[in-house]
Amino acid sequence: HVQLVESGGGVGQPGGSLRLSCVTSGYVSNMKKYTACIAWFREVSGKEREGVADIYVDGGSTIYADSVKGRFIISQDNAKKTVYLQMDNLKSEDTGKYYCAAGPAVGSYCPLTVGDFGYWGRGTQVTVS
Q1: 46/99 Cα distance (integer angstroms)
Q2: 5 half-sphere exposure, CB direction, 13 A CA radius
Q3: Are strands 62-64 and 50-56 parallel, antiparallel or unpaired?
Q4: For 22, phi and psi rounded to 5 degrees?
Q5: pLDDT tens-digit series, residues 55-69
Q6: Largest CA distance in the chain
Q7: Is 28 exposed, middle or buried (CB count within 10 Å of its CB: 0-12, 13-18, 19+)?
C-alpha cells in the first residue's frame, strides 16, 4: 500500500521561502510503474486542484506550472524516498493546501494533471501572508 506523507507547510511571508517534503513508503516491486511520477498539487477553497510541479523519478525530468516557474524547484532524494518542493519568492496566490501524489509515467513524461495520479497524501497547508 503506497503512502505519501507531506510536511513543511506553514505561514510564509511574501518574498519568503518554504520547503515542503513528501516521504513515500509502502512500495513493492510490481507497483513501481504506478509510482514513476511524483507531483505536487495545490488546492484553494472553491477552486479546482491544480498541478504545481512533478518529477520523473527514474530520470529526474521535471515539469512546472507557469505560475511557479523560476520560483519553485522540485527535487528528490532517492535514498530517503523523499521528494521536496522548494518554494522561493512566495506570493499570496501560492496560499493553499499542497498535496503530494504518485502516478504512472507516459514513457518518460509525467503529465501534470489530477486524473493521472492515483495515490495521494493528506496535504499540508501553506499560507502566504
Answers
A1: 16
A2: 7
A3: antiparallel
A4: -130, 110
A5: 999 888 999 999 999
A6: 43
A7: exposed
Percentage of the chain modeled with pLDDT above 70 = 96
Task: Give residue-wise pLDDT tens across range 7-37.
Answer: 999 999 999 999 999 999 876 556 677 789 9
Tell the burial category of 5 from Cβ atoms under 10 Å away from its Cβ (0-12, 13-18, 19+): middle
- The set of cell numbers assigned to 9 is 507547510
Looking at residue 26, its pLDDT comes to 79
Q: What is the distance between the alpha carbons of residues 18 and 32, in angstroms, rounded to a whole number?
A: 29
Alpha-carbon distances of 28 from 53, 55, 59, 111, 112, rounded to whole Å: 25, 20, 19, 23, 24
Q: Side chain identity at 88, as an amino acid letter? A: D
E runs forming strands in 1-129: 3-7, 10-12, 18-25, 37-43, 50-56, 62-64, 72-77, 82-87, 96-103, 119-120, 124-128
